Amino acid sequence: MEEAGLSSRGERTERSPSTGDYNLKINMEDFDGNQRFAKYKNMKVDDEKNQYKLHLGEYTGNAGDALPEAHPSPSGQWNSLGAGQQGVKFSTYDHPNKDDEKCIRHDMSGWWFSKCESGNLNGHYYNGSYQAVMDDGVVWYTWHGWWYSIKSVVMMIRASDVHPAGSN
User: Which residues does the annotated region (Disordered) include (predicted)?
Assistant: First the structure.
């Protein structure tokens, strides 16, 4: 099994899927015990030279598509993570990408930022049901908006040709 991950400093923790032959599943739970998920086909993470740019294919799930779609920011302006075909680069405090420095200072995390908001699963963890004053928490806009910090998140990557027993 091939696993991958990036630390909050953007360091590779294992091998990174760079072929696009991977699926990403994100499981989320709020503080009331409600659970949601987001799945993306053809997930690809570029190499270090390309700043771990994230590309995502087709979305399915019940959490809403907070990564590649455009969403209004809290100020009312529309923005997009842009993690579709063109992708978006991974940024950290010490390695910000174009236009990401404000997001990193504001959200205090490493993530695939583009205008900060729609989804940040590496945000500040608030221990308890907390409606944040700032949208710096663990945010999935299409489920709970910007101001709610999610209780738990698990991101799983699997080769697209691997199927669990009993599935199609």
Answer: 1-25
pTM of the model: 0.72
Residue-range domain boundaries for the chain: 22-159
Q: Under CATH, which architecture does the 22-159 domain have?
A: Alpha-Beta Complex (3.90)
Instruction: List pLDDT tens digits, range 59-114.
Output: 899 999 887 544 444 544 444 444 444 566 666 666 666 655 566 555 566 566 65
